Amino acid sequence: MTKIKTASIWKRVSCVVILLCSVIILVSCSKEAVEPPTGNKVDNQEASKVKIEKIRVWSDNAHERELRLKQIEEFNRTKGRELGIEIEYTVFGSEYQDVIKQAVVDDEAPELFRPTMAFLTNFIDLGYAVPITKLPGGDELVESYGNNLVNNQHIFNGEVYTLPYNLTTYKFIVNDDLFKKADIKEYPKTWQEVREAARLITEASNGRAYGWILGLKSDWMISTYLIRPNGTNVGHVGFNHETMEFDYSAFTPVVEAVMGMIEDNSVFPGFEGLDADSARAQFAEGRVGMIPGASFDTSVYYDQFPTDINWSVISIPSFTEEEPIYKEFADATSLLGVGKAALDNPEKTLEVLKFFYSDENTAQMYTQSLYIPFRQEAVDIAASEPTQKGFSDFADMPDKVIMLPSPDTRVDVQGSLYRQTISNIFAGKYSNMSVEDVLTDLDNRYNEAFQRLPESIQDEYKQTPEVIDNFKRYD
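RESULT FIELD:
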């Protein structure tokens, strides 16, 4: 009986040993199958030593969200992993300003945020926004923008808080079909030629189309389509930073040219009751020969009012037979500012800031017609032409300057403001006064209001001689 039990025990032990050996062999084989080569193992070990930290970025740029998220996903998966960075990108809607203001109060605001003039100066005063140069390496990034940074837009109290990213540019859009029908061989180069072209187009169209159009119900068309584009002819957009005075009377030639078209009956009828969308819709329908345009209008004629007409983008006409002596004006928008939370992780925050502003990423935005880059380098490396017609023409501004901030919104002007005053001229409400007299009176009212501002506020709009001199073209 004892021998039988002993044999049974040894039999069981043998089975256990065999099972253990099998497990060891399987584990060994399994390790050989999944264990990477020695080099990869070292890399993985090194990567595992990098601490991944989140850098929060807040914005309300919903139109670029899809492409931006793809760029961020690629960064987080590659370079971000190497540097120990994970970008946490949040896009808000119309509530953005309220959300970020409350986050500042609660000390929960992000490292990077899209700044707007509606709150940036307040954030600076509160100590929430910090200069880019406070980040290690920030000086080099700022220096790469040369003398293109301006007071009260990028520079506050002598410190750089944000950088220009994209541009709104201004050109002239013409209907090639109507030009051909009117037998006009060349595009107008002066505003007097614009008036003549408008007359010829109107005459050739027999009431089915007109040379020009206005939309006085949208007073922003006065500033966006007349004043800003013609900065190239006068050197400013209403406030002359060289003389530190308002000078709307400098725009007399273009206002007189439009008045001439009204007198010639070359302007689309009923313009007093049209708004911007109505005016652009008429152009898209082929009923208007010429209309000023901003770079965002390519989207209007691509998506909002798709058109089958043949149209081209040309330069802003000159006031004289000579070329304008000033560079083309563009409105620059900043992408990101730096919050004080960045000071807890300054090196990684700067890497994220550089990533967002990189020419490679901006070039992708350009090819999808999302932005006209401020930096020409981004345009130059774009892999393909923009998707929208005319977008590359609006981006063709190698000789450009950024419009300077104007105090027009900070003055308490007696009487009608400049947009309404110019609209009233076109509506015939100053029939007993010349255009120049009306605009001179406008200047006087604005300058009197400017002089009533505290000197400290007036000083905010002073620019260096280098900035002023940069506005002029030099052969």
